[in-house]
Prior knowledge:
Number of strands: 6
Structural class: alpha+beta
Strand order of the largest sheet: 2-1-5-6
Strand content: 5-15%
Number of helices: 9
Amino acid sequence: MTRLDIFADPVCPWCMIGKVELDRALESRPDHPFAITWHPFRLNPTMPPEGMDRVAHLRAKLGDRAADAARALAERAAALGLTLNPAPREPDTTDAHRLMHWAGLEGAQTRVMSALLRAHWQEAQDISDHAVLARIAKGAGMDPALAARLLASDADRDEVAEREAHARGRGITSVPTFIVADAHAVSGAQPATLWQQVIDEIMAASRPD
């Protein structure tokens, strides 16, 4: 198997787009060699626990570019057949990343990330809400009662922060960032065709002469 490490934040729209593109490539190559691990990277590490109004947050962050950014996202999403209905508030994703950490222990990370992205970007849900996160855990095959108890505590909060700091220390500054075989970095929401090419090259290199 080939490691594919993905640094992402579920409030990042290009993480959503990038995952859809990657998923389509993987579906077209069912014998792909990737073993995927998701890693925490908060776009807004200083976001207050109660979050912020989404539109106000985007205007503060992007200024005059906010409208153009929203238009580009809508066009790319429409091209993929996605209907967007984002949450009205930009949440603190610390607890979402804690849930992702626990999902990694149970082999449920990709299911949880899919649900987090869908909840935030298509179902207008607050993914900092512990009840929402517990439902996502249940849908991914995890124990929702255990997830709720852990979320109510400070369990693994430091672990998530340390993993994020390690990523920044490696030079990762934006998401999504994909690291292939712990050697090759790919940034941004790449098209499925690129991932198909990468998979084909890896598979060809692994075949005996």
